[in-house]
Design goal:
233 residues; alpha/beta; Glutaconate Coenzyme A-transferase; 8-stranded mixed β-sheet; 6 helices; 11 strands; 27% strand
């Protein structure tokens, strides 16, 4: 990799520098837009003691669920965890520390972290267990709690297209948490379906500028459907 070219050609190179006890921020929503091959590389590396920040934790034996299976996650910061039996078992047994966070607050924690904003006030969670122990301030007669932003040692995201400079385009609902996550890592790695030459992407359609992205790798994806619903006839 030289100059502004951020393309790497192996998942070992993509996740170089990963160590025990790091914080990983992962894009995706359910199984939509998850960086599945980067997750598999984390599993393959054998690192442990991870704090993982993501909307949810995959399903049993797929997505972030593979890191639960191998007991590589120490703490999970997420907004929804209902599709993973291993998650439930590890939470109830005390093996896994969990910090449940309202979905919009989680997205803003990532976005604010990427923007260099250390904390922000939100009304979401005030008067509930989410707000326990947090600073409260009143604005225009309404009470808000102070939430700290999130940054990670690595951010891993999945995009549709990238150019060699790391500019990213996400496809439809696979955008979800990915742009927020991409800004919040000290090292941001994007795996993508297609890599194009600089100048081929419409500048007005770029969701994440390459300034936030350190490494890009082209992958192939299984794209599982989390819950398939059909009708007869």
């Amino acid at each position: 990799m030289s100059g502004f070219n951020k393309v790497v050609h192996s998942y070992e190179e993509a996740m170089a520098g990963l160590e025990d006890n790091m914080t990983i921020i992962a894009g995706g929503f359910g199984l939509c837009g998850i960086p599945e091959n980067l997750i598999n590389q984390i599993e393959k590396s054998g690192v442990t003691g991870l704090t993982v920040v993501s909307n949810n934790c995959g399903i049993d034996n797929f997505g972030l669920g593979v890191l639960l299976r191998d007991k590589q996650i120490k703490k999970m910061i997420a907004s929804y965890v209902g599709e993973n039996k291993m998650f439930e078992d590890q939470l109830l047994s005390g093996e896994l520390e969990v910090e449940l966070t309202p979905q919009g607050t989680l997205a803003e924690k990532m976005r604010a972290g990427g923007a260099g904003i250390p904390a922000f006030y939100t009304a979401t969670g005030f008067g509930t267990s989410v707000g326990d122990g947090k600073e409260v301030k009143t604005f225009n007669g309404r009470q808000y709690i102070l939430e700290e932003s999130i940054t990670g040692d690595f951010a891993i995201v999945k995009a549709w297209k990238a150019d060699k400079y790391g500019n990213l385009v996400f496809r439809h609902t696979a955008q979800n948490f990915n742009p927020c996550a991409a800004t919040a890592g000290k090292i941001t790695v994007a795996e993508v379906e297609e890599i194009v030459e600089p100048g081929e992407l419409d500048p007005t359609q770029i969701h994440t500028p390459g300034i936030y992205v350190n490494r890009v790798i082209q992958g192939t994806f299984e794209k599982r459907i989390e819950q398939r619903t059909t009708r007869e006839g």
